[in-house]
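Input record (one chain):
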Amino acid sequence: MIPQLAWHLRRWVRPLWASFRIGARGVFAYRAEALVTLFSASLMASLNGLLWSAATKDRPGIAGVPSDELLSYVVMAWVAVSFFASKVNEDIGRRFKEGQITADLLRPMSLQLQCYARDVGRASATLILQTFPMFVMGFFAFGVKLPSHPQTWVYWGISLLLSHMINFGLSFLVGLAAFPLQNISGLTHVKGTLVSIFSGALIPLDLYSGVLRTVVFALPFHSMAHTPTCIFLERDMPLAGLLGEQAAWAALLWMAGMLAWRSAQRVLTVQGG
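The corresponding structure, as predicted from the sequence alone:
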């Protein structure tokens, strides 16, 4: 019994670890590209921070949020985006276009698990090359408010991992749209725009009100940047509820990806044949 269990574990762990290493090496191998991405993301975060710094100048706060907390929110939301940003949809779309997706059908492990392990590796490398430098920049340039309780760092880390899984679920579904649509470049831009607007990275969700606020918080996007940022800022919100909602969205999108991948395999057409 135990030897069989060990064999099954090796059967799954080895390919997952290999995918993880491929994702991490892909970032470290192209350090120049990672630095360019870091510069671009830091520039966007800085411009956004300067904009909200000017908007809150000589004001105690906006929409009931203190000025210093709002500025910390803006910067930390971009820090979260730098970590969970994914190219899974672009990768799947490229593999479909080039016909490489057929090789994924022959592998014993599902495409979803392969992509997730590879993207976790990419995110781990990004954490070192992009997320941490952006966090340091935000701390010194904008005086980001640090948590007062040590355990908050742990909860924030868990929330970031769940944010990554939510974004992966959305990106995987967008990537699978290449099967019926043939080309997902437009859908990729739509997904990026929705994430920027409704996750809290571009506009703090505290400023939304009425029906729009209800719609925003009914979608998964707010769990990607808004939730981990609120946890980092130690807002008076139910921690278990925030993490539970993230976990629920991650599980729901994962199951949707499983069903979509099974459906896509039945209608796979490569190079028109």
